[in-house]
Amino acid sequence: MQLEKIISISGKPGLFKLVSQLRNGFIIEDVSNKKKVSIGNSSQVSLLDNIAMFTFDKEVPLFEVFENIAKNYDYKETISHKSSEAELKEFMNASLPNYDTERVYVSDIKKLAQWYNTLHKAGYITPESFVKAEPETVEGEAAAEEINVEKEAPKKAPKAEKPATPKVKASTGAKAATKSTHRKMG
Question: What does the radius of gyration of the chain's CA atoms come to, in whole angstroms?
């Protein structure tokens, strides 16, 4: 599927495609203008493949919702994310009839319409884009590596051990000298 490596980055407008993974981040490509940049591991990245929308029964993966929209609009552009609240709710009801109206906000519907239209303009919304491809193999090995986008859990610092109390060796020579001066003469 073409849409598997599409991401959203918190604080950056638009959608991006993961190109490759670096030691300390990722190389991404803007889906609209195809410009490549690198981002660090500290960026908050959401893989669209991991996003779902709430219905009263279950959570529906975002790409299934995109597929419903594509079929409803004959794989063409949909309403603008700047449409009225009533139009957006009607659009959502047609795209995901059983959506949870309490947990799916108008802002979520706006983002859905905006992302769909962005992907459509970039050529990602086609009948072929929703077909799950079999993993390619080269002599029994996977041809492409899965890029891990999930942030690693912060590693806890090892528990600091209390420093051992330094053992001070008294110099035997100093004690001997002190004792010798205090001897009684006699």
Answer: 31
